[in-house]
Structure formats: C-alpha cells, structure tokens
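Inverse folding, one chain.
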C-alpha cells in the first residue's frame, strides 16, 4: 500500500513514522513534509512548488500525483486544507482520503458554527454568546464586568470565529482588557478577518484534557467515534503555565487524572451527542477529531473541536498505539471501524517541543541543529522534526536547519510518566541549536 501524508509539522512526521512501521505500507509520500520526513524510511517528500496546500490548483495537482504514483490513501494533518475542501475534491475524484468534508471541517474553522452545533445537539460546553456587531459585544463586556463593589467578576473568554493559528482566544480579567481585545478583533482586523464574528464565553476552571478519536460517520453508515488514549497538551509558553499561548509546547499521554468516571461522562455528555449531530447534519466525516475538554469533579465540558489530530498530542499518543495505522485508516473509510479494537501499550510517553528563541513572537530561522546521535540513541526516544528543513546530504537527525517556531519534538516512552519525562529530557539534551528553548515541566502535573 502507498500512502500520502499531507502537512509539514511534527504531527505529520509522527504519522509518517507510525505508517512506516506497518508491513502493509511500502511507500509514503509526505506533501510537502519536512526535514525529518525526508529522512524517514520508506518516505519521500513531495514538492508543492512552494505553494500553499489550501490552493485549489495545488490540491488538484496532488490528486494527479496520487493517480500517477498509484497512491492508495491520503491522510490530511492540518485544519486549513480541510476547511478549504480538500476532502470533497479528493472524494469527488474517487481518491481515498482521511478527513472530514468541508461541512464537517466547519466544526473547527468556525467557532460560532461549532457553538451552534453544540447547542443544537445538547453537547455540554461553556455557555457563550456570539456577536457580529462590535457595539453589542462591548455592551456584553460591560455587563459582565459590572458587578457590585467587593465582588470580583470571573474572567471572560473572548474567541475569534475563524482559523487564527492559535491567536484567536484571549482570557480577559478586566473590562479594559476585554474591551481592547473586542476592538482589536472586530474593528482593527488584528486577525486578518478571523475576528469579524466573535464569541464571549464563560471562563471554566479545571484540568484540560485532549481526546483524539477516529471517526467514521457518513450518511450511509451507522457511524462511530473511537476515542484514543487521552493526552494533555501544555499550551502556555513557559513553565507552570505562564506566558502567552502557543501552538503547544509539549504533551503527555495517557492522562492519569482523566478518571473512569470522567471518561464515561465524556462519552455520554459529549462524544455520543457529537456523533448524533454529525449524522443528522449529513457530514461525510471519515477522519479524526480532537475534543478539547475541561474537567472538574469528573464532569467534562467541551472547549473546542479540532477536526484533525492534535499537534503535539499525536507525537505522545501514536507511540503508545499498538495497532497498524494503515489498517485503522482502512477501517475508518470502509465503515468497519465499529468492529475495530484499539490496543494501547502500558506506560507513558512524554513529548516536549523545542522552540526557536522568541517564539511565539518573532524568531530566527536557518540555525543549524546539532545532534549527538550516541547520546540520543541511549534514551530510546523518537525524534520528530517540525519547523526544520534538511540541507542536502545530511544523515538522519543531522543536517537539519531551523525553519519554524516549533522546531522539533522528542517522544520518550517510560513505564510511567516520571520515567518517560526523564528520558525525554535526556534526549533533548542531545539536541542543540542557537536559541533553542523548551518547557521543563511537560507532564509534571
Ligand atoms: P481553544 O482554541 O478554544 O482550545 O482555546 C485555547 C485555550 O484557551 C484552551 O486550550 C484553554 O486553555 C483556554 N480556554 C479556551 N476556552 C476556555 C474557557 N471557556 N475557559 C477557560 N479556558 C479556556
Ligand atoms: N494541541 C492543540 C492543537 O493541535 O491545536
């Protein structure tokens, strides 16, 4: 079987690595891939002429490439091409592709749509109001923070409607900050149009958990959502959850405080009604979904859907998965997912991310990545490149240069989370580039 993995981040490198383990997979094409996928066994990178994968012409070119190379299956990593209809195009051309159609992808592309979906199908979530006019949003901000003297109102969560690359959520603790954020999003176009519609949401306290899941839901199928071992991302830039939000600074799996009681609450209050909604809306959703949950006293509330696997959660979860990933994808497509059983290794995986100095603000690119292969190998960790490109002629793990903010991650397996953490940080010690930094507390709490 030949497989194409679409995307260029750490998640896509992890997908390529996992697919390469499959006896069924003979060749993998990473489109466009990165410096890590280029060196992975069975894998070659596909040039997209340096153009954006969301462009219709690029997607059509990929379909032609699938046909020319007799590729059996495509798997989409990131959200933007999904929202741009890549799945509709591939399926219309008779090509097998893993992901939701553009109607399903709106669960991530539009938070306002996701909120209306949650309400319509009784999915437990934070309460919220959606605004398309700045004046109305400012009035609601005033009302929220207008409380009697001596009473501190809870923070207010402000979310932009469209895809905003992780910059569309701001937690505001006072009226001035909230008013400024509303104006910046709605009037000043701070998010290139993503904030024209805006959501004001109740602030939830608790512990966050990411549940990734395989989905097989199409109008002609009974439909099933099969959850993976839970993971926890660490979104804030600095240790102990301080500093700005990022795309994700590291993940751990499984999550020991996601108790049996919380898991069954999640199935009843969130997963089951989500599947019902997908079927009622008639999505052709054969792909992956990510439930961002807030959990308190074993009760789950949904913060967000992502219509794909999480990054860096995938790097922590896939090394625990015993199943053949190509087989799982076939089950998603052919409707046999309801009979499919997932098997998980005992133990834990810790996956910290190393970022370029300055990230998530301005950062440098083009720095050489030094790699002490002997020291790295001793840890048994996996190396996943993200914002890293390969200079011609480099060996595995070496010959890489930084090209993005989140540069690379390592995934270390241990009998428990403490062992996984120790090995992960020993592995990061064997890697170096100018300005490299990372959180030292991934999976600690
Ligand atoms: P989202 O893109 O909706 O996941 O939001 C990004 C991050 O903001 C989440 O991972 C949470 O840490 C935080 N967040 C979002 N919504 C809420 C909420 N209603 N209450 C508390 N924190 C939130
Ligand atoms: N880790 C969260 C995301 O993939 O957006």
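Residues assigned per position:
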């Amino acid at each position: 079987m030949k497989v194409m993995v679409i995307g260029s981040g750490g998640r896509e490198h992890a997908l390529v690595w996992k697919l390469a383990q499959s006896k069924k997979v003979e060749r993998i094409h990473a489109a466009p891939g990165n410096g890590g996928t280029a060196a992975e066994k069975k894998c070659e990178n596909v040039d997209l002429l340096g153009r954006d994968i969301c462009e219709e012409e690029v997607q059509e070119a990929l379909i032609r490439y699938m046909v020319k190379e007799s590729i059996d299956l495509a798997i989409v990593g990131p959200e933007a091409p999904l929202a741009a209809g890549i799945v509709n195009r591939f399926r219309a051309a008779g090509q097998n592709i893993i992901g939701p159609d553009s109607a399903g992808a709106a669960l991530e592309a539009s938070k306002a749509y996701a909120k209306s979906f949650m309400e319509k199908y009784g999915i437990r979530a934070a309460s919220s109001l959606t605004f398309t006019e700045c004046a109305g949003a400012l009035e609601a901000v005033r009302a929220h923070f207008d409380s009697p003297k001596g009473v501190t109102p809870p923070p207010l969560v402000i979310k932009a409607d469209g895809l905003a690359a992780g910059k569309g959520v701001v937690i505001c603790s006072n009226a001035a900050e909230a008013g400024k954020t509303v104006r910046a999003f709605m009037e000043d176009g701070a998010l290139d149009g993503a904030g024209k519609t805006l959501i004001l949401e109740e602030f939830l306290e608790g512990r966050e958990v990411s549940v990734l899941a395989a989905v097989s839901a199409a109008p002609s199928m009974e439909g099933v959502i099969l959850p993976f071992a839970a993971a926890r991302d660490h979104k804030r830039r600095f240790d102990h959850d301080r500093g700005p939000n990022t795309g994700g600074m590291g993940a751990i799996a499984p999550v020991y405080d996601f108790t049996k009681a919380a898991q069954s609450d999640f199935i009843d209050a969130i997963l089951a009604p989500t599947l019902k909604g997908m079927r009622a809306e008639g999505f052709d959703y054969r792909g992956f979904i990510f439930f961002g949950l807030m959990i308190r006293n074993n009760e789950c509330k949904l913060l967000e859907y992502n219509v794909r696997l999480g990054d860096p959660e995938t790097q922590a979860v896939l090394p625990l998965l015993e199943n053949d990933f190509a087989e799982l994808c076939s089950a998603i497509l052919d409707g046999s997912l309801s009979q499919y059983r997932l098997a998980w290794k005992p133990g834990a995986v810790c996956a910290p991310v190393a970022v370029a100095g300055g990230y998530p603000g301005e950062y440098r690119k083009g720095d050489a990545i030094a790699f002490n292969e002997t020291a790295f190998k001793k840890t048994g960790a996996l190396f996943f490149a993200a914002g890293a490109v390969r200079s011609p002629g480099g060996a595995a793990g070496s010959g890489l240069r930084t090209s993005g903010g989140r540069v690379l991650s390592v995934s270390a397996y241990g009998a428990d989370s403490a062992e996984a953490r120790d090995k992960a940080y020993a592995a990061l010690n064997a890697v170096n580039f100018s300005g490299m930094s990372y959180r030292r507390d991934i999976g600690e709490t």
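The radius of gyration is 21 Å. The mean pLDDT is 94.
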